[in-house]
Every structure is written in C-alpha cells, then in structure tokens.
C-alpha cells in the first residue's frame, strides 16, 4: 500500500544518504579546509533531511488510524478466500472496491425489502378477495334457505352471481398473474440474495486482507522507526568521526606546508642541477661530436678494408676455380695412367703365365736361361711401373696439398669477410646507440 511504499522509499533514501556520507568521509584525508566546510554543510543538510523524513513518518503514522477506521475490521477471511494476499499488494483500489461492494449489498437488501413488502401486500389483497368471495357465497345460500324470492329477484341474483363469477374469474386471473410475478420476484430475490451473499463474502475477504496488510504495515513502520534510530546513531558516530578527521586535516595541512617548503628548496636545488647538467650536456655534445667524426673515419677505413677483402675473396675464388680445373685435368691423367698400368699388368700376367708354362714344359738349361732373361725383363718393367706409380702418387699428393691450401685460403678469406661484416654491423649499431644517446641528451 501507499504508506508501506512511502516508508520503504524513506528507508532507501536514508540508506543512500548514509552511503554517500560514508563515501565522503572516507576521502576526508585528501581535502582542504574548503572541502571540509562543504562536507560539514552536507552533514547538516543530511541531518535536516533526516528530521524531515522523521516528521513525514510521524504524519504517515497519524494518517494510519483514520485509514484503518474507515474500513470494518470485524470480518475474518473465509476458507475459500485463499488466504491473505502478500504484503504490499493491498492498495486504495482494493479499499474502493470493498466500499463499492458494500454499497451494492445495501442496495440489493433494500430491493429485497421492497419485494417482501409487495408480496405481503399481494397476499393481503388475495386474502381479502377470498374472504369477500366466501362471504358472498354464504349470504346467497342463507337467503335462498330463508325466503323464497320471486322470479325477478332470482334473475337479479343470477345476474349478480354471473357478475360475481366474472369478477371472481377476473380476480383469479389477477391472482395467478400476481402469483407468477411473485414467483419471478422470489427467484430474482433469491438470485440477488446469492449475489449479495457472494459480495458480502468477497467484502469480508477484502477486509481480512486489508487487516493483514495493516498489520504488515505496522510491522514495517516499527522496523523503519528502528532503522531511523539506528541511522541517527550512525550519523552521530559519523559526526564524531568528522571531528576526528577535521583534526587530522589540520595536521595534514601543517605537514603539507612543511612539504611545500621542502618542495621549494628541492625546486631551487633542481634548477641548479639543471644548469650544471646543461653545461655538462654541452660539453658531452662536443665530445660526442668529436667521437662521431672519429667513428665516421673509422667506418670509412673499415669500408675500404671490407672492399679489399671482397676483392681478395673474389681472387681466391678465381684461383680455386683454376685449381679445380687443374685437379680435373690431373684426375683424367691419373685415370689414363691407371688404365695403361692395368693393361701392362695384364700383359705381364699373360707373359708370366706363358713363362711358367714354358718352364713347366721345358726343363732344359737353355729354356731356364731364356726364362731368366724374360723374368729379368719383367722385373725391370715392373720396377719402372712402380716408379711411375710413385711419381703419380707424388703428383696426386701435391695436388691434394694445393687443394687443401686453396680451401684454407678460401675459408680464411670467408672468415675475414665475416669478421669485417660483423665489425661493420657492430660499428653501425654502436653509432646508432651513440646517436640515440645524443638525441636523448639533446632532448
């Protein structure tokens, strides 16, 4: 309901103001006197707001009895009502609906009373007609018994009887019509009574819900009052903390003044150091400029040496190609010598086989002498071949030595070139670092 929502809004606003106050007090160390004065004004404003919220809460509590007296609370919720609604769901619309239902029930009760009066009146009219009919029939019977009327009187009595019968038929028709209307009215009254009872039950249920909602609201009001008291205590504590923080702010202001004095002294010292550093920087710039010129000259010399090394490496590569051609020529010569040697060895083996065959066939001294001559010739030829083989091996060894020497020279040239390139890269890197240092010093 409206009062419960107002209390919740009040409590939430107090909580927000309390959180804001705590946040403001947490940053009290870093503020000056102006911020401290502004904070105290904020605390005073929060205190005024709290007093205003308490007054509004009291006004709401004063309005609550009048609202409660406007609705009857004697009714209790029935079993079919489904129990009380959740807290906070009953509002002014439900109270208005309950009031309208009560008015509707009163109106239907008035209509029922009117119908009852009409039925009683119809019953009285019916009883009076029945009495008149019975009294007319009795009078006519007694007159016939007592006297002997004439023909005219009998005719008059017959007309009167016919008129009475017609009147009675008309009255009976009216009575039947009235009975039908009475039954219809009774059915309508029964339906209206059932509707009135249903509305009465609904009203009682709404009253029960309203009563429970009022109890929940009273409990919430008590909790809100307790929370307001707690917030008041917290505000008092925050005021005390504010006084402590004010003292802390004064002490921090004194420390800030001392730090400002130290800062001024440090600024003066830094200005002097900056001037000294400016002089040193100018001297360093002159020195680094001289060093840079020397490094440039060294780079030019290194570049010339690198070009010379590249020329030497190119010449070594040309010589290596020539040695490779010479080696290929020698290898072809050695292959030819090997082929010749293999042919000679084959020929000697054939002659040796022939000599062995001749020695085996002929045992004469002449044959032995001829065989010895042939053997001597073969030995001489073999010695010559071994000398040629030794010469070829010497040539091959010399060729291999030349190849190794050329390979060593090539590797030495490559190492020298690699070292020259590494030195050149290192010198370029050193120059870049020096330029960066000079740039930083200039900045």
UniProtKB/TrEMBL annotation:
Residues 54-93, 131-169, 380-443 are annotated as: Disordered. Transmembrane segments: none annotated. This is Uncharacterized protein. It comes from Dunaliella tertiolecta. Residues 54-66, 145-159, 383-443 have a biased composition (Basic and acidic residues). Residues 134-144 have a biased composition (Polar residues).
């Amino acid at each position: 309901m409206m009062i419960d929502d107002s209390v919740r809004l009040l409590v939430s606003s107090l909580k927000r103001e309390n959180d804001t106050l705590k946040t403001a007090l947490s940053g009290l160390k870093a503020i000056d006197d102006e911020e401290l004065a502004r904070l105290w004004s904020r605390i005073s404003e929060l205190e005024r707001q709290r007093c205003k919220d308490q007054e509004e809460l009291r006004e709401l509590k004063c309005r609550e009895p009048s609202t409660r007296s406007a609705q009857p609370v004697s009714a209790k919720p029935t079993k079919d009502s489904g129990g009380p609604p959740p807290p906070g769901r009953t509002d002014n619309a439900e109270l208005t609906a309950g009031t309208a239902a009560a008015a509707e029930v009163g109106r239907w009760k008035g209509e029922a009373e009117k119908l009852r009066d009409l039925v009683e009146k119809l019953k009285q009219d019916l009883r009076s007609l029945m009495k008149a009919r019975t009294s007319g029939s009795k009078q006519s019977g007694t007159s016939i018994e007592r006297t002997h009327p004439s023909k005219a009187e009998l005719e008059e009595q017959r007309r009167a009887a016919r008129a009475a019968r017609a009147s009675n038929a008309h009255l009976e028709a009216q009575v039947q019509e009235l009975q039908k209307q009475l039954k219809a009215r009774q059915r309508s009254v029964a339906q209206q009574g059932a509707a009135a009872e249903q509305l009465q039950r609904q009203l009682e249920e709404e009253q029960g819900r309203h009563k429970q909602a009022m109890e929940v609201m009273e409990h919430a009001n008590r909790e809100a009052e307790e929370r307001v008291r707690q917030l008041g205590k917290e505000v008092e504590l925050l005021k005390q903390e504010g006084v402590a923080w004010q003292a802390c702010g004064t002490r921090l202001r004194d420390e800030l003044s001392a730090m400002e004095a130290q800062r001024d002294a440090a600024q003066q010292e830094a200005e002097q150091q900056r001037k000294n550093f400016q002089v040193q920087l100018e001297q360093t710039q002159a020195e680094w400029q001289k060093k840079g010129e020397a490094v440039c000259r060294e780079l030019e010399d290194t570049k010339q040496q690198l070009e010379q090394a590249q020329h030497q490496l190119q010449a070594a590569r040309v010589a290596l190609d020539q040695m490779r051609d010479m080696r290929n020529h020698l290898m072809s010569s050695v292959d030819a010598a090997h082929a010749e040697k293999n042919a000679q060895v084959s020929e000697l083996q054939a002659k040796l086989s022939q000599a062995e065959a001749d020695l085996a066939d002929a045992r004469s001294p002449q044959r032995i002498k001829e065989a010895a001559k042939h053997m001597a010739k073969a030995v001489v030829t073999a010695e010559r071949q071994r000398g040629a083989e030794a010469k070829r091996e010497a040539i091959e060894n010399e060729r291999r030595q030349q190849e190794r020497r050329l390979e060593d020279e090539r590797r030495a040239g490559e190492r020298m070139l690699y070292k020259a390139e590494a030195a050149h890269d290192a010198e370029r890197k050193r120059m870049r670092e020096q330029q960066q240092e000079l740039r930083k010093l200039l900045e």
